[in-house]
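User: We ran a pulldown and think these components assemble together. Before we commit to crystallization trials, I'd like a predicted model of the whole complex to look at. Sequences follow.
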Amino acid sequence: MLEARHLECTRGEKKLFRDLSFKLGRGQLLRVAGANGSGKTSLLRIMCGLLSPSAGELRWQGRPIRAEREEYSRNLVFIGHLNGLKDDLTALENLRFGAALGGVPADLDHALAGLDRFGIAHCAELPAKVLSQGQRRRVALARLALSPKVPLWILDEPFSALDVTAVAELERLLAAHIASGGMVVLTTHQEVQVVTHAVLRVDLDLHTAALLAA
Amino acid sequence: MIRTLGWVIRRDLLLVFRRRGDVVNALVFFIIVVSLFPLGVGPEAAQLRNMAPGVLWVAALLACMLSLARLFAPDHQDGTLEQMLLAGEPLVILVMGKVISHWLVSGLPLVLMAPLLGLQFDLPGDALAVLCLSLLIGTPVLSLVGSVGAALTLGVRGSGALVALLVLPLYVPVLIFGAGSVGAVAAGLGAEPHLMLLGGFLALALVLAPWASAAALRIAME
Amino acid sequence: MSKSKRVSWFYFSSPQTFYGLAGRLQPWFSALAVIFCVVGLYIGFFIAPTDAQQGESYRIIFIHVPSAWMSMFIYLVMGFWCGVGLVFNTRLSSMWATALAPTGALFTFIALWTGALWGKPTWGTWWVWDARLTSELILLFLYIGFMALQAAIDDQRRADKAGAVLALVGVINVPIIYFSVKWWSTLHQGSSVSMKSAPTMAMTMFAGMIVMALGFWMYSIATALSRVRCVILERERHTEWVMAEIGERK
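Assistant: Here's a predicted model for the assembly, 686 residues in total across the polymer chains.
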């Protein structure tokens, strides 16, 4: 459903990767691997439509995303390096605004349930600026719990700053999403224990895209 | 789409409410700058009355321009802007929302404060009314045009002075007709042509500026 | 300023091929610039009659008016090529616009200075807030803003595109600014010191200004061609052809 054709990315003077092609279907997880600076974040941003590739194109459901950016954006949730949280808003407010702007408005109960999944329901009324790094990351990730119907999840280093419980919870969440036919794209330095049939691995260092059986 | 616009405005206003200093800053700057002029040129009433429209308008211009740093930069830094680009709604709508809340916080207080400051300059009542009206129509134009400058310089070093350089020349027509309207009333002529032109600028800015800002934001986020 | 030659249009839209073309064209435009300017100055300083009111000092308009025309013209052309670069995503259009900007700023500067030099002997002041001078001043800020924005952004593609948006916003604003300033000037002019129409235009004067304008136009093209070659070399410095080119020079 998400198809990359001969993607090429040049940042500044450096050509990060070229001629990258892969197909990501329903119920599949794509793991982007590569050393620091190899272009993982750039590839993810290209997949979100935030960055234009210097060559090649990306297609969603057979149509180029460039043509229908808004429609495509409605089908994805992106959680990047920056958490997208406002310091002066509480965790709950941040989550509800984030969900609403993403097109999936969440009422109070759902939002609290989302925070609870990651064990931070007790932080709901605290402003984000007093939360720890890990707690802020979890508030950002709680949006995923509210977006089961959004097919494509694109996550940049989602496991960073998370403790063991939170990592396990996120893995469960991702597995459930994939099992229900969703798609996940992520970069991570850690080996991911997401139980799934199909893990597609794109290795930017080696310029390969291979489908691995889990 | 209107709902998303509402969410954007609500979030921004909630943020300002939590940090009320922002509103006060723009207003205090406006008051201070206006008060500097009599100190600089002397308190003679006729001279002040002559200067008043220009002084008040320039001060409003500068206050608006200073507050542009608040418009997109904080969102850019914490990742909220990224999420707005991925919102699935036309970016133009979201930009409009940001500009509206910016004006409510940085422009509208100036409109409300101006009559009091105009009294300090001994402006007659009808001139004060026109001053208010011209600022009411003109300050949204300042926010709209300023948003283009703010979007272009997002994350660029030295962006404070750079925004001023980019945006102040574009403010000149608004300044000319804004201050001109008050001057016309003070001289006994009508202010309608000026205010109509300001209205025209507002209409033009409403159509073009959000579009240019959205394009500039996408360019800045690449 | 058409680049179309006997060969297909798009052949020259690659920086590499345009580099060669620019190098070959530049001497021709320089020569034309010199010829036109010499003729224009000759007309302006020797052939055109002495003005009844202003004497000899009015002759500065043969530089002032054409440079003002060029400053506006170059901004529009710059805006045009910025637009092309933005829509068609061609690098060369952006490079050409970047190459034009300093020349446009220079003409704006010359217009301002010659305006001051005219004002002093004629009306006794170094600066007059008339419509044209004030518009030129604002236009200078627009040029400087464009160049400053491009200089401040490190990423080249972003600098090109951001500059393009700014230039296009500027192009829409230039007529608005000019109209506003003109209105403001007529309103506030006590004694009408208008730099535009002070000497009633004799045919020779007009001819002189046109020839000077042509000379300035040729000069702009020549300088922009030479400057764009530098821009191309700098931006394409990692490609083989540039490295070969620089190697040859050494």
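The helical segments of chain A are 40-48, 69-74, 91-101, 108-117, 133-145, 164-179. That may be worth checking against your pulldown data before setting up trials.

User: Thanks, that helps.
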